[in-house]
Amino acid sequence: MDSQQTPSRLAVIGDVHSCAAQLERLLTKLPPGYEPVFVGDLVDRGPDPVGVLDAIIDNNFRVVRGNHDDKLYRALKGNPVQVGPDLAFTLERIRSQPAGWRERLVSWLAGLPTALVFPGIAIAHAYWSPTCPPDEHLWGPRFHDEEGTIFRVRWWDVPAYWTPGIQVVFGHYHLPVLTPHAVCVDFGAPEGPLAAYLTDTHQFIVEPPTKVARK
Ligand SMILES: [Mn+2]
């Protein structure tokens, strides 16, 4: 976890999921003086994972690791992961890039933090607390029943999961959450909009989905 003194004004952008054109339009809508910061899940689902990665890595934007980015990293490292159609598409696009591009991507993914903490604000893909394991930053708090079924905790509704004085800005869930403790910026791209949350004014800037088939 990085601790930041900053606060420049932040525009926290939700799960991009390979929507490069939607991201490009959203970035042009940000008011001047805001730094884009991403909650992760850059790849899978949408049409252009390479375009998204180029836009973010070339501009040196700050990103926290999402579960999709983490799985991509593990796949590129040769670790055993379950590859569904979304990740297969992402991997196909990435493997069509030059070797140097892929190497830059792997080292960039290796360096992604699971959370960024600013005064009054914590940014993580699914959840943040000062003491939770990094795995919960990516996946949120979960528990299993005796059959192994996984239950997600709706932590934004449960005061025991909140951190006093901190608003956690997160993605992952595609649910409308906007409270003093928790803000969800995943608006469901590519089927839904891509959103940016301005941490000082508590406003959203929203870019509607692009109507383009993936393949
Ligand atoms: Mn996601």
From TrEMBL:
Gene3D superfamilies documented for this protein:
3.60.21.10
This entry's Gene Ontology molecular function terms read:
bis(5'-nucleosyl)-tetraphosphatase (symmetrical) activity; phosphatase activity
PANTHER family (UniProt xref): METALLOPHOSPHOESTERASE (PTHR42850), ZINC-DEPENDENT ENDOPOLYPHOSPHATASE (PTHR42850:SF4)
Name recorded for this polypeptide: Serine/threonine protein phosphatase
| UniProt domain Calcineurin-like phosphoesterase: residue ranges | 9-116
Which InterPro entries does the record associate with it? Ap4A_hydrolase, Calcineurin-like_PHP, Metallo-depent_PP-like
Source organism superkingdom: Bacteria
For this record, an example GO cellular component is:
cytoplasm
